[in-house]
Every structure is written in structure tokens, then in C-alpha cells.
Specification:
Blueprint: H1 2-8, E1 18-22, H2 39-50, E2 54-55, E3 78-82, E4 93-95, E5 106-108, E6 121-124, H3 130-144, H4 154-175, E7 177-180, H5 191-200
Antiparallel strand pairs: 1-3, 2-3, 4-5, 6-7
């Protein structure tokens, strides 16, 4: 029923990297103990293809469904489909020893997590504060103090610009405060702060 629904319904899901579960389909393609081909396999592959996914091969082949009756064969019913040539994912693993009282083995896939430097603090000036007033006054005086009479080349202009940038940076760090990023928005809060806060969480 699930395959029929997915086949006949336009499912709008973007950026799928993994599709996995107990598909309850026996097929010789993934189960060497089953000598037959199932038409459901073709439907399943068409659905996976529509999501740009391919069947993943386990690092070692084990059954995924174990029968309580020792006379019955164990089966491969749990499958994993992955985005092909993905840098995040590789082949999956089947863990028959993890199933405990379950009759299904766990299947896992490793993914790499890139190290990112997430800012949890920001330099800031409180609006209408004494520090903000000092910052503005010192900035005005720094701009007034620049000698622009000798700008006769691009190199001379770049020296003046770099001097101004250094002054602004020095004044900013002297007057601003190091504050924690929190959910309490102020006038300086923008989408970049929301992004950093979400990354930190």
C-alpha cells in the first residue's frame, strides 16, 4: 500500500539523502537465499530513483529479519537507499548482535560532521549608552585627524584608508563590550545572529 501510494502520488520532498526501513519485500537482488524477482522491487527502485537515491550495499551481508522458528530462513527485508557519490555517507552496516529481543537487526550509516567555529559571543555597543557616545565622538575625532592633503596616488589613498580602518577597529574594541548571544533581540539583532544562535544550539 505504501509503494502504491508513493508511486501514484507526487511527493514533493527535496534534498533526500537517506531512505531506510523495513520494506517487507523479498528479492534475489539483495537476498541470495531468495531465488525470485519481485515486481515490487521495480516499483521500489523507481520511487528511489525519483528521489535520486540508490540502494546501498552493506559492508557485510547479514539477514535483517530473524525468524523465531529455527526451521525458517532469516530474511533481508530492511534496506537503505543513499544519495549516490555523497561525501557525507558511505555503505551502511548491519548489526545482528544489536537486535536483543527484536526480530530485526539494526542498520546504521556513518556520517562525517565538519568542525565549525560557532560564535557564542559578539562585540556590541548598547544603544544610547555612554560607551556608544564615546565611540561616536572618538570616531569623529579620528576622521577629523586624518591628513588628506598628501593624497596624490592610489598608494597614498590606501595608506590613509588603512589608517582609518585601524583607528575604527581600535576604538571599537576599546568601547564595545563582549556579550553572549541570547534569544533576547535588540536593535542590532539580525538574521546572522539567528543563524549563529541556531548553530550554537
Amino acid at each position: 500500500m505504501a509503494l502504491k501510494y508513493l508511486k501514484n502520488t507526487e511527493v514533493n520532498i527535496n534534498n533526500i539523502l537517506i531512505m531506510t526501513g523495513d520494506f517487507n519485500i523479498r528479492n534475489s537482488f539483495w537476498d541470495s537465499n531468495f531465488p525470485y524477482h519481485s515486481s515490487y522491487r521495480d516499483t521500489l527502485f523507481n520511487i528511489a530513483n525519483s528521489f535520486h537515491l540508490e540502494l546501498s550495499k552493506p559492508t557485510e551481508f547479514f539477514p535483517t529479519r530473524y525468524s523465531n522458528n529455527i526451521q525458517d530462513l532469516s530474511l533481508v527485508l530492511d534496506l537503505m537507499f543513499l544519495y549516490p557519490n555523497s561525501s557525507e555517507y558511505d555503505n551502511h552496516c548491519i548489526h545482528p548482535n544489536w537486535r536483543l529481543t527484536s526480530n530485526h537487526a539494526s542498520i546504521t550509516v556513518d556520517t562525517s560532521i565538519l568542525k565549525k567555529c560557532v560564535q557564542t559571543k559578539k562585540q556590541s555597543l548598547i544603544k544610547n549608552s555612554e560607551e556608544e557616545t564615546h565611540f561616536i565622538n572618538k570616531l569623529i575625532n579620528s576622521i577629523k585627524g586624518l591628513n588628506t592633503n598628501s593624497i596624490q596616488s592610489i598608494d597614498a589613498l590606501e595608506i590613509i584608508i588603512q589608517l582609518l580602518a585601524n583607528n575604527i577597529n581600535r576604538i571599537w574594541h576599546k568601547q564595545s563590550k563582549n556579550i553572549n548571544i541570547t534569544k533576547h533581540s535588540k536593535a542590532w539583532w539580525d538574521n546572522n545572529y539567528y543563524r549563529d544562535l541556531d548553530m550554537y544550539k
